[in-house]
Design brief:
364 residues, alpha+beta, BirA Bifunctional Protein, domain 2, four-stranded mixed sheet, 16 strands
């Protein structure tokens, strides 16, 4: 269990060791940046206000868009950035606007297979900070796109199939194929692709059997070489991880930890977003949602304080301070008061006397 601040420091230190530098941004950006890319955001609800110069501004609901906007677009150069920011959007738990701590990183520029593997590895290490039994689900949108190309379905049918795949609804996907006149053999590619999810080696073996041609074999081989650099125990292939293909391409992924029912990390390659924002570079990154990890980074305390130290009107400040310091040196949290506060919980009730401190009551 780690406190939120320490967890963020540990993650930033990890990213710094790999050459990532911190990106700092203002609490707000021009609203136009977000309205043009609403479908890229987790939520399209954005808090806005009018600046003194008449411009419509927004409290930042996202960091990646700002990084892309301000990124260096230099051929042959890779820019590595991490951030430790608060974003403003509707909370999963309360359905109300909330200031949400978020940590993440972005790798932008001349992205190659090493860049992809490094980001995946840092995503895995980030998850392991919170629980060694994490799971990193990895998909490949280029492989999915090639399968859909070979099925030969219409653009509207393609969008519907992607939605089915994200829900693991193969039955409905096959229905769509029938309605579009796709023959049974081609339609079966979807169920065969879905079966290629799970443990990495077995999934890659299944993928290799789908087709036997140079383009397909090269794509599966490259995917396998990237995944080979990650811990097999914690990594799965899962083609239901489907981000918006208007923005994402290639490798996409989600991270999970036990006891939390939703993903706590997500990311992927977003070359398409870069192109939409008139950048020539590629990019890959991820965000870690600390609000979803709240139970781990901010565990509920059994007591407000370890020790409640009661002193009287006649006790000297030096004696009170000495008692507090002594208890603190024992690793206890200490609150000094003249009387017991209402609704305060404590493990030990201690009184200051002429002979020193005396424990008068203990909550087991």
């Amino acid at each position: 269990m780690r406190q939120e601040q320490q967890a963020m420091l540990d993650l930033c230190e990890l990213y710094g060791r790999f050459g990532y530098t911190q990106y700092k941004m203002s609490k707000f950006e021009e609203y136009d940046l977000y309205v043009r890319n609403k479908s890229f955001l987790i939520s399209d609800s954005v808090i806005t206000f009018t600046d003194t110069n008449g411009k419509l501004m927004a409290l930042k609901p996202d960091v990646t868009l700002s990084i892309v906007k301000n990124s260096l677009d230099i051929p042959g150069y890779v820019q590595k950035l991490y951030y430790d920011e608060h974003v403003y959007r509707i909370s999963d738990k309360t359905s109300a606007y909330k200031e949400i701590p978020q940590v993440g990183l972005e790798c932008l520029g001349d992205i190659d297979d090493y860049s992809i593997a490094e980001v995946l590895s840092l995503a895995a290490q980030s998850l392991s900070t919170f629980d060694e039994d994490y799971i990193l689900d990895v998909s490949n949108l280029d492989i999915l796109s090639l399968v859909l190309d070979r099925i030969g379905i219409s653009e509207s049918g393609r969008r519907a199939l992607i939605e089915c795949i994200s829900k693991k609804d193969i039955h409905d996907a096959e229905r769509i194929c029938r309605e579009e006149g796709i023959d049974t053999e081609k339609a079966s590619l979807l169920s065969r692709l879905e079966a290629c999810s799970g443990e990495v080696d077995a999934a890659l073996k299944g993928l290799a059997s789908l087709f036997d041609d140079v383009e397909w074999n090269a794509m599966v081989k490259r995917f396998g070489e990237i995944l080979a650099l990650l811990p097999k125990k914690n990594v799965r292939i899962d083609f239901s991880v489907v981000n918006d293909m208007n923005y994402y391409n290639g490798i996409v992924f989600q991270g999970f930890v036990p006891s939390i029912p939703t993903d706590v990390l997500s990311g992927g390659q977003y070359d398409n977003l870069m192109a939409r924002m008139e950048k020539k570079s590629g990019a890959i990154g991820f965000a870690l949602y600390l609000d979803r990890l709240e139970a781990l980074v901010s565990p509920r305390k059994e007591y407000d304080v370890d020790a409640l130290l009661l002193y009287g009107e006649g006790d000297s400040p030096s004696a009170i301070l000495a008692a507090v310091q002594e208890l603190s040196r024992q690793g206890l949290t200490v609150l000094a008061q003249k009387s017991v506060p209402e609704r305060l919980t404590w493990r030990q009730l201690i009184k200051l006397s002429e002979s020193g401190v005396q424990t008068v009551e203990t909550n087991a």
